[in-house]
Specification:
There is one protein chain. The chain is α/β, with parallel strands linked by helices and about 260 residues long. The protein contains 10 helices and 6 strands. Helix 6 packs across helix 8 (about 215-225), helix 7 (about 175-200) packs antiparallel against helix 10 (about 235-245) and helix 9 packs across helix 10.
């Protein structure tokens, strides 16, 4: 039945984006202004497929508007441009809280000691089923002046990561050459970040990237789209790797 699904998706992508939704993108997703016109059209198609196929729901009685759904879906669609995609196949629902929320936290240290508790979060991605986001943080980080952070790009990058199995910082890579380069280049960049943090040195990437390879990929994805020129200057090999994977060159977009 795959061909029927693709045929339906094709029809959805050809449907013009409503003017009201373009207005939402213009005000809420500044990255859209940097895209070439053909990419904007592709983005609008992917946005509509995501809105049609994923279930968006508010948490704790939070009522979702078109503004919320479109803002989130359009940012996620940046990760799909120029590539064959199955639209985050493990993702079913996008759950949105009005602001930061509290969730259970479990952590095991190197000695095997497990600590449990509650922590405040802006977002999270589950390997099967859902992404959870804080709308306040989505709005704040969608602002292009906010720096290299973007919670939507971060959590949807995790969904790319798990398409081929565990969350390990290695998304599905059909090209064997790219797979080999991915392990080598991303591995070196991750190790270098760890060394810099251990020495108390600064890093272009948010220190959270040093948590594990999965978080490194997600944080690097944020920087690739939100601060591409800085990433290209500071970690050129990593930028080049992500450019090959995403088949985009955000550093060359018109500012």
């Amino acid at each position: 039945m795959g061909w029927l699904r693709e045929r339906r998706r094709g029809r959805i992508r050809q449907t013009p984006l409503p003017d009201a939704w373009w207005s939402i993108l213009a005000s809420r997703v500044p990255l859209v202004h940097r895209l070439p016109p053909t990419d904007r059209e592709e983005l609008s198609g992917h946005t509509q497929v995501l809105l049609a196929e994923k279930h968006f729901e508010g948490a704790g009685g939070f009522e979702l508007s078109d503004e919320i759904r479109v803002t989130i879906a359009a940012q996620a669609a940046f990760l799909l441009l120029h590539r064959r995609t199955d639209y985050f196949p493990r993702l079913v629902s996008v759950i949105v809280y009005p602001s930061l929320y509290v969730a259970p936290h479990r952590e095991e240290d190197e000695a095997g000691i497990v600590s449990e508790g509650m922590e405040t979060r802006a977002g999270e991605s589950w390997s099967r089923g859902a992404i959870v986001l804080s709308w306040d943080d989505v709005q704040e980080m969608a602002d292009h002046d906010h720096g290299a952070r973007n919670i939507v790009l971060h959590e949807f990058a995790h969904q790319l990561d798990v398409e081929n199995g565990p969350s390990d910082g290695v998304p599905f890579l059909a090209d064997s050459g790219l797979r080999e380069d991915w392990v080598r280049i991303l591995g070196r960049a991750y190790d270098r970040l760890g060394w810099d943090l251990a020495r108390g040195q600064g890093s272009f990437l948010d220190p959270y990237a040093g948590t594990n390879p999965a978080e490194f990929f997600a944080v690097a994805t944020e920087a690739f789209f939100e601060a591409p020129r800085g990433l290209a200057e500071q970690v050129p090999a990593l930028y080049g790797l992500l450019r090959r994977y995403f088949r985009q060159d955000p550093a060359a977009w018109v500012v």
